[in-house]
Amino acid sequence: MGQGDNHWCSLGFAEPTAVYKSGTQKARHLTEGWMAEHGFCPNCDADRLPALPNNAPVGDFRCAVCAEEYELKAKQGSLGSTLQAGAWSVMQTRLAAANNPSLFVMRYDAIAHGVTDLIVVPRHFFTAAIVRPKNPTWPKGRSAAWQGSTILIGLVPDAGRIPLIRSGIQVPQAEVRDRWRSTLFLRDAAAPARGWLAAVMKAVEAVGRDEFTIEDVYAQEATLAALYPGNNNVRPKIRQQLQVLRDRGWLAFGERRGTYRRV
After folding, report:
1. When you count CB atoms within 10 A of the terminal residue's CB, does the N or C end of the chain come out lower?
2. What value, to the nearest 5°, has the Cα angle with vertex 238 and ends 236 and 242?
3. Would you give the end-to-end CA distance of the chain in angstroms?
């Protein structure tokens, strides 16, 4: 691997230099410290990611070269299909901004004291379409209700879940950046259109074959209708998104008439 991969010498955490009152504070310190030491920018050639100031809303790191911003979520055990996030109102505002962050999702092993899996979700997939509000709560000492949010990471297609570490094995930076660039065309679309494109990409992946027909994607109609209950023309929307994905090179026509294939 090139020079940019050299600092991936260890997947272990450094010992904290401060005493933390809670396990959550300690885990946050360890995981953010690891990213500051070992993380790199998938959007450009930068080999480090400086941390944003503490308490920055929905953001932990900003690339000093391209200004891409990143949020980090870390958890033990399986990454699963959901992630706990911050205040619903803050998430809505931040994800609607022009510089909404991309999302790192880290799985770590507290016993082994290191990182086992790490993916990045580019910001054109990390949109309000995959975030849901939680029921309001009244925390002790607060005069008003607080409403958190949940990130439905399971709604992100595989194309938008780019591995940097897989089962303890580091993925070469060049491969990560190639995968990142392959879906950058989504940034040309408005936020609602990006949500539909990502949903149709997920439906295509659910077919489970590289070559498929439009009827195969129509089989996901109920799932898409549930995601967008206000749309009564799901099949025309599917056809439209498949055309966009073909025009942008993510799909191509298959060898057999009436088929598509994933590129």
Report:
1. N
2. 120
3. 26
How open is the CA angle 244-250-255, to the nearest 5 degrees?
Answer: 100
In the DSSP assignment, the letter for residue 136 is P
Dihedral-angle region of residue 257 (phi above 0 means left; psi in -120 to 50 means alpha; beta otherwise)? beta
| Residue entry with tokens 């308490």 | 55
Q: Tell me the one-letter amino acid at 120.
A: V
DSSP 236: H
Q: What is the pLDDT of residues 216-252, one digit of tens each?
A: 999 999 999 998 888 889 999 999 999 999 999 999 9
Q: In the chain, which residue ranges form alpha helices assigned H by DSSP?
A: 23-38, 88-96, 173-181, 191-207, 214-218, 221-227, 234-247
Sign of CA dihedral 180, 183, 185, 188: negative
| pLDDT given at position 23 | 60
Q: Across the beta sheet with 259-262, what order do the strands follow?
A: 211-213, 259-262, 251-253
Nearest to 263 by CA among 182, 158, 203: 182
The amino acid that residue 45 corresponds to is: D
Edge-to-edge strands of the sheet including 169-170? Answer: 61-62, 69-76, 102-109, 114-121, 162-166, 169-170
Percent of the chain with pLDDT over 70: 89
Q: Beta strand 114-121 with 102-109: parallel, antiparallel or unpaired? A: antiparallel
In the prediction, which pLDDT does 218 show?
A: 96
Q: Look at the alpha carbons of 33, 23, 110, 70 in this order and tell me if their dihedral is positive or negative.
A: negative
Residue/partner pairs of 222-228 with CB below 8 Å, 24 or more apart? 224/199, 224/200, 227/129, 227/155, 227/199, 228/196, 228/199
Output the six-digit token pair for 251.
Answer: 């799909």
